[in-house]
Amino acid sequence: MITVTNISKKFGKGKDAVTALDQVSFNVCEGEIVALIGLSGAGKTTALRSLNLLEQPDSGSIKFNGKELLTLGALELRQLRTRIGIIFQQFNLISNRTVFENVAFPLEVAGYSKEALVARVEECLRVVGLYEKRDVYPAQLSGGQKQRVAIARGIANRPHVLLADEPTSALDPLTKEEVLTCLRDINQKLGVTIVIATHEINIVKRLASRAVIFSGGRIIEELQVKNQKIEAKHEFTKRFLEVA
Length: 244
Known about the structure:
- The protein is an alpha/beta fold.
- The protein is built from eight helices and eleven strands.
- The protein has helices spanning 44-50, 74-81, 99-110, 114-127, 143-155, 173-190, 201-207, 235-243, and strands at 2-11, 18-28, 33-37, 59-64, 67-68, 84-87, 161-165, 193-198, 210-215, 218-226, 229-230.
- A seven-stranded mixed sheet has the order 6-7-8-3-9-10-11, with helices on both faces.
- Helix 6 (173-190) links the parallel strand 7 (161-165) and strand 8.
- Helix 3 (99-110) crosses helix 4 (114-127), helix 3 (99-110) packs parallel to helix 5 and helix 5 (143-155) runs parallel beside helix 6.
- The longest helix has 18 residues, at 173-190.
- It is globular and about 50 Å long.
- The model has no long low-confidence stretch (mean pLDDT 92).
């Protein structure tokens, strides 16, 4: 579904430039939950945000269903982003809009009719278990509820892929469980492929089918996650798993 080949990204210029990604390559297959993991500054979030070009790589190739993303025009890029949803660590909800209105926002931008918009928003709110909160404002919600609203907004346009940037790191353990269950249901019941950037190993073990390990802007290794276990081969990954 997604093929990333030798993408590189630097922030800044000259001697002050920082290499965020250095010749990074990996694939995401349809129906998977893939975790991009590593310490802060490892490159995992930059790699995640590159998948829908929120971060534009300096070089390399990113293909979505065979189409090269780095050569897309503005209109094609907008169309692409309806198929690759994203949720953020800090929720990014609009404070003066209700839960319903927050989820409706991308559908308004996409030009949905009022009838189709209402039906889709209600469907998404039922998926994340927040239909009864439809008229509530974000300030009245818990952290887990806010993240579930963000997830509902992320799937509103029926994306093929959902990108999740540290979606549980700001949440307490019980609330994390709510969000994990929600993401797992979206993957299993709706067939949405998920790519998650995180430093939380327990989240990876419980949610992902495959882990891509980042360090210093490079991929150290890729590992299968089986029965909530990760069998590391590289010494860095072994140390990371021990302390994370």
